[in-house]
Design a protein that fits this description.
By secondary structure, the protein is of the alpha+beta class. It has 15 helices and 16 strands. The strands form 4 sheets. Strands 2-6-7-10-1-11-12-13-14 form a 9-stranded mixed β-sheet. Helix 3 (222-241) links the parallel strand 12 (214-219) and strand 13 (249-254). Helix 9 runs antiparallel to helix 10 (388-401) and helix 14 crosses helix 15 (466-478). The longest helix is centred in the middle third of the chain and has 20 residues, at 222-241. The radius of gyration is 30 Å and the shape is elongated. It starts with a strand and ends with a helix. The relative contact order is 0.09. Bound molecules: zinc ion. Zinc ion binds at residues 20, 23, 25, 37-38, 40-41, 150.
């Protein structure tokens, strides 16, 4: 019997606000344990939460970007459970009335576009962190760091519309790209700013009834999500084929083995005894506020991609690569503004610029060659002042020194030689020194032509104009 996987993702995105969701403490990552806390986020009795307006703003943006409805009235609820990293004994979240409802994202897998439903997006606070082993100031043991407690999160819950690990990764990548484009999340998966829980079940192909699902918690890289889901699908099929039953449970992914293991039985919503938080009034959002947020949305990746194809005539692939991040797209557009040959700019940005960035693990915002300088280089290339090969050498020099390309060309004497007299002289010398090859060529061995081109280019130190070299060589060799 063949099986079909059914997958839904719950993504937690940490909001890029400078203070926490219900108090004024800093959200900076990496500070000494418990140095960014106050009575509110430590859960002291009597301390009252005050909602951070920025978090609401960010949630609205996320909702609009994923085509959700923004609820005019939403309610914060207490999710009760006991754990040492949760000082209040409950987490403030949203339950029955979340801020965003009923959106979707279109993903593309193997050339096919598929719409994935987004059930809801809600705001909540993060918990603290338990530290085991070597605890600063304590020696060995276990400690609680509450710096992260009360950090603002958006939880973005998808419909169970995903059918493979690849679809899940495509969805996750797209969502990641959107929250980073929106400037509401730094997207840093290693630091846990963007992580996901994967709900996975399997059912016989053709069945309409979903199987029992498991939830794998806190997976924090695209590769791990793929591994975790693939492992879980295989494991569940094996259990069923061996005559067993899938237990609804929460599982943990182990990156070292690429497997998941049982953590605890899955709680039902009623286990959390949700109820509206009496410390926070219902959140009312005016349509004005929503419209203002809509107008302030940046151009999102899908729109940008379409525009690059329509406006610049780029291929879908190039458009996809160049819009991977807002910064890269910005660099590309700034360059096109000064040198309006989009395809040439695209090739350089995706080629030399990306190669050089990767070699030094730098990001585009840290690129030593500015868009204006790259445009200058392309202009020199177009005018024929330098050859394509020399242009790459000049680019490397610009990268190292930050100098203008014109100055580099001048200082290093790299101007392309198109003067036929000068090139003819070189060709004559090389033909005289390689009579044997000249005979071979004339005897019909046309492959030798490449040898001559190479020799002439070498003799001119790469400066000879290749088009002129080809033309003259052909003339002279044919003799
Ligand atoms: Zn605080």
């Amino acid at each position: 019997m063949k099986y079909q996987a059914v997958i839904g993702l719950e993504v937690h995105a940490q909001m890029l606000t400078s203070s926490k969701i219900f108090c004024g403490c800093s959200t900076r990552f990496g500070a000494p344990p418990n140095s960014q806390t106050c009575p509110v986020c430590l859960g002291f009795p009597g301390a009252l939460p005050v909602l951070n307006r920025k978090v609401v703003e960010f949630a609205i943006r996320a909702g609009l970007a994923t085509k959700c409805r923004i609820a005019p009235r939403s309610v914060f609820a207490r999710k009760n459970y006991f754990y040492p990293d949760l000082p209040k004994g409950y987490q403030i979240s949203q339950y029955e009335l979340p801020i965003c409802i009923g959106g979707h994202l279109d993903i593309e897998v193997d050339g096919e576009v598929k719409r994935i439903g987004i059930t809801r997006i809600h705001m909540e606070e993060d918990a603290g962190k338990l530290v085991h082993g070597d605890v600063p100031g304590l020696g060995s043991g276990s400690g609680v760091d509450l710096n992260r407690a009360c950090t603002p999160l958006l939880e973005i819950v998808s419909e169970p519309d995903l059918r493979s690990a690849d679809e899940a990764v495509a969805y996750l990548r797209k969502l990641h790209q959107i929250v980073v484009y929106l400037g509401i999340c730094d997207g840093n998966m290693e630091e846990g700013s963007f992580r996901c829980d994967a709900n996975v079940s399997v059912m016989p192909v053709g069945s309409e009834k979903f199987g029992t699902r498991t939830e794998t918690k806190n997976v924090n890289s695209f590769r791990f999500v793929k591994q975790a889901i693939e492992y879980e699908i295989e494991r569940q099929i094996e259990v069923i084929e061996d005559g067993g039953r899938i237990i609804q449970e929460t599982r943990l992914f182990d990156p070292n083995s690429g497997t998941t293991r049982s953590m605890r039985g899955k709680e039902e919503a009623h286990d959390y005894r949700y109820f509206p938080d009496p410390d926070l009034v219902p959140l009312v959002i005016s349509s004005d506020w929503v419209e203002k947020a809509r107008l302030s949305l940046p151009e999102l990746p899908d729109m940008k991609r379409e525009r690059y194809v329509a406006e610049f005539g780029l291929s879908a692939y190039d458009a996809e690569v160049l819009t991977a991040s807002r910064e890269l797209a910005g660099y590309f557009e700034a360059c096109v503004e000064q040198y309006p040959q989009a395809k040439a700019v695209a090739n350089w940005v995706m080629g030399e610029v990306t190669r050089a960035l990767n070699e030094e693990s730098r990001s585009i915002s840290d690129c030593p060659v500015t868009p204006a300088r790259l445009a200058d280089l392309l202009k020199l290339l177009e005018k024929g002042t330098i050859s394509g090969k020399i242009a790459k050498a000049v680019f490397d020099e610009m990268w190292k020194t930050g100098m203008e390309p014109g100055l580099i060309v001048e200082e290093k004497g790299l101007v392309q030689v198109s003067d036929t007299g000068e090139i003819e002289e070189i060709i004559d010398g090389i033909m005289a020194a390689n009579q044997g090859q000249v005979e071979e060529y004339r005897g019909g061995k046309e492959k030798v032509f490449g040898f001559f081109v190479g020799q002439v280019m070498r003799a001119s130190k790469g400066k000879a104009n290749p088009a002129v070299v080809n033309e003259l060589l052909l003339k002279k060799l044919k003799g």
